[in-house]
Specification:
binds 2-oxoglutaric acid; Glu/Leu/Phe/Val/Trp_DH_C; seven-stranded mixed β-sheet; 12 strands; alpha/beta; Glu/Leu/Phe/Val/Trp_DH; binds NADPH dihydro-nicotinamide-adenine-dinucleotide phosphate; 44% helix; five-stranded mixed β-sheet; NAD; Rossmann fold; Glutamate dehydrogenase; nucleotide binding
Amino acid sequence: MEMEWDDPLYRSTVALFEHTAETMKLDPNIRRRLRFPDRAVIVTVPVRMDDDRVETFHGYRVQHNNTRGPFKGGIRFSPDVNLGETTALAMLMTVKCALVGIPFGGAKGGVRVDPSKLSRGELQRLTRRFTAEIINDIGPDFDIPAPDLGTNEQIMSWMMDTYSQQKGHAIPAAVTGKPIEIGGSLLRLQATGRGVVYLVQDAAAHLGIELGPKITAAVQGFGNVGSELALHLHELGVKVVAVEDVKGAVYSKGGLDIPALRRHYQEGGKLLEFPDVETLPKGELLELPVDIVAPAAVSGVITGKNVEKLRCRILAEGANGAVNADADAILRDQSDIFVLPDVLANSGGVTVSYFEWVQSLQYFFWTADEIDGRLRAILSKAFREVLDVAERRKLDMRTAALTHGMGRLAEAMKLRGLFP
Ligand SMILES: NC(=O)C1=CN([C@@H]2O[C@H](COP(=O)(O)OP(=O)(O)OC[C@H]3O[C@@H](n4cnc5c(N)ncnc54)[C@H](OP(=O)(O)O)[C@@H]3O)[C@@H](O)[C@H]2O)C=CC1
Ligand SMILES: O=C(O)CCC(=O)C(=O)O
């Protein structure tokens, strides 16, 4: 393992790619190539803080592969950001875009910072300086950032504005996940969480499970992905009995009032202070005896240590890298849990980002029904294709999803003659 990349998510992602490459007998030249990014940019981001000090942050943009189209992937603001983690997330983006058949490669970026400790002014200055530092490495035809953990529409708005100011005119296609008022797309905000639920619906239909009040769910994370996911399950009549944020989880046997909980959370209320609910210690949520468990926060939460304690029927991975390679090996061989792996489960986000990019390039906007219909069609097709690979080749769903994505990528690399 090369020192520069050493990180638990990177090690785990490489192990999963290697397992898949071995199973599908991937060309060894391509296999070696996929372990590393095309390019990785590391920048230092000085920011004047409110108390007049200048704090120094570190930022990354890792571009893994652009054989199938421009680099694409989110920007993460989190204290865990480093080169290895960002590279692993970029690798997953490459496979995710290939898997759903959208014309992008994979990238990821981020700043090592806890955004909850910054004022709004500090956050804006950090975002603008980070964007300025990577301005020659991104662009609507080359590499298009989007939101991820710890970032949101406002951050994308500042990124788009900084990019546009440098170029001298508004360039909405420079980022996706921006507000609708400046060229964003209807439903991008909802797309990742809603997409996870569309895939849960497909999985439930396949397993003969009827989604409704007899079905229970637990969701880890209550940000963009987790709260949308919980809300959409709730709207389908599923009893969402527990949700968790960084501090802990709330639980109600009869099902939580997700719309009220979401209002409370979005208005700045603490999850653990929501009235008339029980609380659970951190981590227990994943082990609840519910039908659906959806990790939708950070990576590495399901490991060799707790995987055998899972009691769900469907594991829907909203978060990237929630299951590490040790846990995956156990799930793969010894479990009857139906896994919707991250590259499939959360691909609704980048799919609507693709729609947003197309709309931003054409200055012509689609209706919510058009977007929702196209999203559903792409996700259902991806689900059927992955299931087909799994059934035909007798593979688990993660290896099947990675096989499908890596197979498409390898084909594109060969067609373009990248290894003459
Ligand atoms: N946004 C998107 O479109 C996409 C996101 N994803 C993935 O989904 C995941 C979540 O992203 P997103 O919803 O955008 O991020 P957000 O920043 O919007 O929300 C993150 C949520 O997770 C909670 N959280 C943070 N750390 C922990 C922890 N250790 N245990 C439990 N909960 C925790 C946060 O709690 P608190 O508020 O208390 O900090 C918050 O509720 C990430 O893995 C991301 O890569 C994947 C595809 C697209
Ligand atoms: O919407 C995008 O472009 C990328 C979203 C993302 O970062 C992800 O799918 O992990």
